[in-house]
């Protein structure tokens, strides 16, 4: 396999990534833009969604990446969905799983299989302002600096060990949309950087502490 510039990509030594998506896939697009660079060290080998017909799946298909959809409404209960999601991801034998705008919490079977190897982003400086409205909550609190975090996913909501963070200054004229757009730019760059470094150097999780390295 070759990059668009003609340089070979060593897929045998690149870390295997499965990306979970629920929407437009802007973080996925950033990872796809990076993964053909030979020195990056990671390659997206599969994309799994909880929703059909989304832009994230189209991006993967356009890039020739296999996809799967595991929709909660197709299963009798959450436990059955958890098992199916775990198996759908396991098909790709990933070294790491990246939640890129994935809007579901994963269950015990997923943690048992991929615990300590799943990364997620959040548009706030955790542990402050976890949950689905981190940008809105930070603005309402009146912070002068917000930002984004990359964490190792655990059983809680945005509660896993923090791998890396980047600050984003809140401007006086910001509303939720304008601040979120600047955070998204920082978030994409941080995710691409962290995933590549983790792929090349490894990830160590010790209690509440996560560090890149072996």
From TrEMBL:
Transmembrane segments: none annotated. The active site is at residue 122. Pathway: Purine metabolism; IMP biosynthesis via de novo pathway; N(2)-formyl-N(1)-(5-phospho-D-ribosyl)glycinamide from N(1)-(5-phospho-D-ribosyl)glycinamide (10-formyl THF route): step 1/1. Belongs to the GART family. NCBIfam families: PurN. The gene is purN. It comes from the Bacteria. Catalyzes the transfer of a formyl group from 10-formyltetrahydrofolate to 5-phospho-ribosyl-glycinamide (GAR), producing 5-phospho-ribosyl-N-formylglycinamide (FGAR) and tetrahydrofolate. GO terms for biological process: 'de novo' IMP biosynthetic process. One of its GO terms (molecular function) is phosphoribosylglycinamide formyltransferase activity. (6R)-10-formyltetrahydrofolate binds at residues 78, 103-106, 120. This is Phosphoribosylglycinamide formyltransferase. The record marks 158 as: Raises pKa of active site His. It comes from Luteimicrobium xylanilyticum. It catalyses: N(1)-(5-phospho-beta-D-ribosyl)glycinamide + (6R)-10-formyltetrahydrofolate = N(2)-formyl-N(1)-(5-phospho-beta-D-ribosyl)glycinamide + (6S)-5,6,7,8-tetrahydrofolate + H(+). One of its GO terms (cellular component) is cytosol. N(1)-(5-phospho-beta-D-ribosyl)glycinamide binds at residues 25-27. It is an enzyme of class 2 (transferase). PANTHER family: PHOSPHORIBOSYLGLYCINAMIDE FORMYLTRANSFERASE.
């Amino acid at each position: 396999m070759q990059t668009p510039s003609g340089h070979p990509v060593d897929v045998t030594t690149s870390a295997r990534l499965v990306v979970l998506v629920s929407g437009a896939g802007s973080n996925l697009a950033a990872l796809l833009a990076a993964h053909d660079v030979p020195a990056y060290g990671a390659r997206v080998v599969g994309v799994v969604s909880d929703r059909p017909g989304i832009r994230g799946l189209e991006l993967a298909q356009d890039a020739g990446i296999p996809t799967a959809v595991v929709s909660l409404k197709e299963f009798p209960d959450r436990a059955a969905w958890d098992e199916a999601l775990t198996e759908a991801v396991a098909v790709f034998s990933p070294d790491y799983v990246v939640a890129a705008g994935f809007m579901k919490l994963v269950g015990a079977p997923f943690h048992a299989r991929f615990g300590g190897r799943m990364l997620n982003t959040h548009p706030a400086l955790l542990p402050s302002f976890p949950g689905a409205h981190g940008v809105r909550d930070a603005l309402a609190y009146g912070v002068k600096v917000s930002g984004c975090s990359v964490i190792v996913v655990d059983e809680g909501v945005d509660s896993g060990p923090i791998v890396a963070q980047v600050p984003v200054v809140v401007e006086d004229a910001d509303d939720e949309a304008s601040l979120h757009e600047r955070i998204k730019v920082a978030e994409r760059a941080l995710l691409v950087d962290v995933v590549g470094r983790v792929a090349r150097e490894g990830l160590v999780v010790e209690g509440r502490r996560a560090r890149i390295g072996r």
